[in-house]
User: What shape does this take?
Amino acid sequence: MHVAFFLLLGASLTRFLIRHPGDGRTVWIVALSAALAALYVLGPALGPRPTPRRLGWLGVVVAVWMVLVVLAPSFSWCAVPLFYTGLRTLPTRAALVLVALLTAFVVAAQLMLADGIDPNLVVAPPAVAAVATAVFVHMQRQGDRQRLLIDDLLRTRRELAATERREGTLAERQRLSMEIHDTLAQGLSSQQMLLQASERVWESDPAAARRHVRTAESIAERNLAEARRFVHDLAPAELAAGGSLPRALRALAARAAAESGLDVRLHVDGAPTALPDRVESALLRIAQGALANVTEHARAATAALTLTYLGDQIVLDVADDGRGFAVADVAPRDGRGHGLPAMRARVRQLAGTLTVESAPGEGTVLSAAIPLEER
Assistant: This one.
């Protein structure tokens, strides 16, 4: 449009100079044409928004053009670029008024140039102005709708990104909380019990007290290694060196028996097969949590771990002959009691199920079943 305006302005000035050589209006026509060109060049520098300076500039441009049209009607050809300048600058209704005013000047100028009354000169300019205005308004509305859609899309993407960040944060927080509960918290609890036991026999049985302290030291060393591993989301220490799940559970049973005095046994049913790392880690952590609960709460004499390979699923059962409890009454309280929810969360992440069967005085059986993909 800018190029078209200057071409039309130059063509109009050339036509006037050719048709009217030596005319007394020539100086004014040339001066006003130069002024109109200079004013039009300043337009983009003022920006597209209808600021007071922009509106004042548009008024001066239209006024100079109208004077030129009165002096030389051929300058009416510059009206079309001015249509779009007004439509870009003014609100729709004000722009329509400006277009109607410019069109009226164009019709009057064409009639002045014609030898007689020509109906086409009366009808054609308004028709062209109407089409040009309709096309511009339609494109402007389409552009506004596209901008709204783009804004909605960008806002949705930002909300999605924020939601994913929150979900990732919550998932990592849950992972760390389960790892801390199953390793550090249980280890600290065992250390506390061992140190309390060593304090009770410190004077009467120094050898036993030293054994308790050494056991607490080994637990602290193991927990330190576990802490370093779960910070980096690595496998448990028992599985990190390529050990199998039955071997890790056997080591866990032996360690629990040595630390707590329980009679802990492991039974493996079915042919052991390679399991996904996530499944092995989850079952080992569940066994750790279950044995920690037996040691701390059950007052049991024996506990049994049973790992069953069923082809399409793997099942871990942990049974004890302790005092049992009412399953419906179990709830986190006083910062404790998070073991079972953590186990359920681990199993749920692997599309498995966790069942707990217990009653006061009848012991407890915990069963975790995780489905395996078909090989």
Observations:
- The longest helix spans residues 119-200.
- The longest strand covers residues 302-309.
- Strands lie at 263-269, 302-309, 313-320, 353-358, 364-371.
